[in-house]
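A favour, since you know our structure tokens better than I do. Could you add the entry underneath, on a fresh line?
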Amino acid sequence: MIPNEVTVLCWSEPQGEDLNFAKLASFLGVKSRLLRIDAESACAGYFEQNLSRKPICLAASGKTLARIFSSCNFDPELRSFILHEVSHLLVYANEPNQSCSDALSHLTEGAIASIAPLREPDTKYEISQNHRGICRQLTGLAFEGANKLTDVTFASDGGQNSLNSLVKIGDREFFAALQRKKCNIFIAGCSSVADIDTHVSPASEVRSYFSQLIPAMMFLKHVFKESAWHAQKPFASFMVDDPLLQQRYGFLDYRKLLHAMDSAGFSTTIAFIPWNFKRTDSATAALLRSRPDRFSIVVHGCDHTASEFNSNDAGLLSRKTREALRRMHSHQKITGLPFERVMIFPQGRFSIAAMKALKANNFLAAVNTSPVPVDDSKTILLLRDLLDVAILNYESFPLFVRRYPVNIFDCALDLFLGKPLLLAEHHGYFRNGYDGIAGFASRVNALDENLTWHGLGHVLHHAGLRKRGVGVDLHMKLYANAACIVGEPEQETNCRISKADSDNLRVQAMTLSGTPVKFVRSGDALTLSLHLAKGARARLEIDFDNPWNHADFQYRLAEPFKVFVRRHLSEIRDNYIARSESVLSLAYRVKGFLARPQH
């Protein structure tokens, strides 16, 4: 059985770590409640009266545990109650002092011999290979970054009471589990729990909060399973920016890439520049048409000029977006190659107004390497935003963050959090062939046996979280803007669906597989209830009002000659200069000279 909630024990009043843990549980869709205790109530009778619903899941800080067991009125029956009546217990926010060490030793019947602060900050976290059910996609990985300010480690007695190691720092335990009587005890070696509402910088990575978040998340995901938010399936997609659809573009050869995809088992999405819509080679188009399982196309800007989607004029951006779509539709008509309404911003630069324009033109989402617009220095990014499937801060239009195929741990962390894994590169990545991407894709595939690769549009259509609920069979959170795939349940299901929406554009219609459905607005979200038959695969579509649809002005290139020159110079760079080390080196020296201030 799965517990109904996690009860957080608080000594007298909740401390910051208790509130942060409860907030993290809520983020994961797990109900939590705070149970206050003091010297008089720290007894088996009080616990039995207030923890009547089984199975019982408890969480407590090391400080609270130390106060319980060191209380002058301590009830010797309390430990017996915990070990016999509580199914799961997490001890978080442990401190390297004697009282905390004694409490853990008492609770674990001596399995914890001591607690010590971290002395070697450059030591790696090493995640166990033996507990995939808990560690999930992070199983067997290691990375540097242990934090001497917050991390503590445990020493086991080394005998029959030894701990099941989940994460180590060096040769000592950092996150471990053991069973005593009927209780599964988890102990996390960090003196704090991160506040997911803390402000973070655009350059922040979730891995820098590993010790303050991930052990607690492992515990909650393990205990609550499908009753916590989780992705239905793990997805991955690889993108290549800019290339023309010709036999070869720079270092990219489509047939060789296809061979690598078939051998390593991955798919590639081409971020296609709409300006090039008349320039696709027919043989290359035929190759891509023949393998829709491996190749797909999305939209990469319009002209691909510098900062073209960094304007604050939403009307102009909407018209530019429509011009990009017109070109993509023309390209589809000429070549027979379909595309998905996903925008990858040129140079990664975008404005909040651009997000509204994409939403108004029913794009699915935007994908970018940076999570913040370049035009808004006041943008507030919270840690919870980095943990979510997509960034929803800008007009509630989803921004999915992608990464380069460099750090396998970051990829595993994305999958652990329920995000789709989105990888990106340019043609230069293939300078030395295709073994690099094939090898990296193989490492990604080893992270999760259920992972599948698809085109970017397919992945974003399916992006979302779900959990088993109370009152309905299934709760779902959808992220794609205009169309999402709902369903394929294993049995007949009543589900409640929610999707973030700031109400900045009127919803003209919402349909499920073509049939209008009723929805309600609840705060900053659209919600609806559905009944799905077993195996049903429905497409939910939302049509937003575009206030610029009837504008007389149509987007035209303001400086067509400059765009022409820019595009062709870029191709000369990629097809010729980049392929010669000596010429490329000279080009960079000339560029550096021209960039110098002139006197």
Observations:
- The chain has four domains: 6-227, 235-461, 466-544, 560-595.
- The CA atoms of residues 273 and 300 lie 5 Å apart.
- The mean pLDDT is 89.
